[in-house]
Amino acid sequence: ASLHILKVEIGGDAQSTDGTEPSHMHYENDENYFRGYEWWLMKEAKKRNPKIKLIGLPWAFPGWIGRGENWPYDYPDITAYYIISWILGAKQYHDLDIDYIGIWNERAFSSKYIKLLRYTLDKHGLEQVRIIASDRLWEPISFGMLIDSELHGVVDVIGAHYPGTKTVQNAILTQKKLWSSEDYSTFNNDVGAGCWARILNQNYVNGNMTSTIAWNLVASYYEELPFGRCGLMTAQEPWSGHYKVESPIWITAHTTQFTQPGWSYLQVDGHLEGGGSFVALTDGLGNLTIIIETMSHNHSKCIRPPLPNFSVIPQRATFYLRGSFGMVETLQVWHSRLDFESGNSTLFQQLHPVKVWKGRFSLDLNVDEVYTLTTLKTGRKCDCPEPPPPQPFPSNYKDDFNIRNPPFSEAPNFADQTGVFEYFVNASDPGDHVFTLRQVVVQRPITWVSDADQTISVIGNFKWYVNTI
Q: How far apart are CA 154 and CA 113, in angstroms?
């Protein structure tokens, strides 16, 4: 899929939709930069694309930050120190450079805290780390930046969630970069692919957003948990190794294989006469990429917000290349067609190049299609090996947690929902309980949702109804 940007949760020991992610500081005097899977994930992403941009964002915070209150801003210096420690740990222990840092996912922001965060970043030599805010709605952050020049100076990107391809006037007036910093969240069948194709284009065409981030990357959690299969692909059977590259992956490739961070959107109208949209991007060095989508209403509904009615019809579209692009003679063509009748969708197929005649070319566009036309010849679709077949969770399963140097802090197949369960070695135990799994959070975190009062971890098969443990 050639992803350009990866946002990870800064674990806060509390529920953040499909589970809890462990904090690097459960307690004030505790630091451990090897908990959870996000460090591993960022390093794996960098192996595949060394230029990928990294964002860290907290959903929750360990309880000690609030000094007994369910609020992270009463002691902003402590919160800033906690976030900075995560950024420094990423570099020191994993050689990862964090590019952007967020405030608090879909919760209130504090202008005082954001300013202090910038000051603390700079004090620690992290001037290159940019701040994105507020990962909720366009307001009140946009208005706040217009009336507070200091706040305006420290926020680099305004990030809104599920904007429905629209922005607001105040956000535009800030003249900051506008991002859809969480979007999609849709079941990853072909309708999900249609949703993704439509918003990848129209977030810019309608809303001037130059980045769109899908929640979530890979559906790697028990499907019966909230938002099952709402990832770009599915890999929810670690016991079998089965995975499925779903159609949203190839929709992603239509944009990401033929552009890079640093490319610029051209300010074209972007709306097709028969419905649908197109965007054009350039690297400023003569390369051009055009992405066209003709997704119909019923085949491109995202999970939110509600989608107003619109129509798309088959059409012939003619494009004119002017200025420096007038010299372009051919464009490489990649095509997808989502087929909702037979189910035989065409995904990311290379077609014959299009000839550009005197700066113009025409395409016959059907409904529910995506085209990429580009000067780049680097596109490719892998012949990936077949994954192992799917298997239910094994009905006989055991784990004695007897592992001296575990690759992760938590045991496989457990999905913590409240609290954090970690490997623990009790060297003083004389019997069978040297190696155990231990719940380690003893103070209620600053929660993102209403966490349960008791600790919970899920394992197994949701269809089981008679178990012996």
A: 11
Query: Residue 382: what pLDDT?
Result: 84
Question: Which residue do the tokens 């899929």 mark?
Answer: 1
Summarize the confidence of residues 269-297 as an average pLDDT. Answer: 98
Residue-range domains of the chain with CATH: 5-245 (3.20.20.80), 277-374 (2.60.40.1180), 415-458 (no CATH)
Is pLDDT above 70 for 1? no
- Burial of 463 per CB tally in 10 Å (0-12, 13-18, 19+): exposed
Cα torsion through 324, 330, 332, 335, rounded to 10: 100
The active-site residue out of 9, 21, 182, 422 is 182
Residue 148: pLDDT band (50, 70, 90) is very high
Pairing between β-strand 157-161 and β-strand 130-136 as defined by DSSP bridges: parallel
Mean pLDDT of the chain: 97
**What are the two backbone dihedrals, phi and then psi, of residue 106, each rounded to the nearest 5 degrees?**
55, 30
Give the mean pLDDT of 420-431: 93
Residue written as token pair 């780049």: 376
Which one, of 229, 184, 175, 224, lies nearest residue 202 by Cα?
184
Cis peptide before 396 (omega within 30 of 0): no
Residue 106 falls in the annotated catalytic set? yes
Cβ proximity of 258 and 221 under 8 Å: no
Ranges assigned E (strand) in 338-408: 346-355, 360-365, 369-374
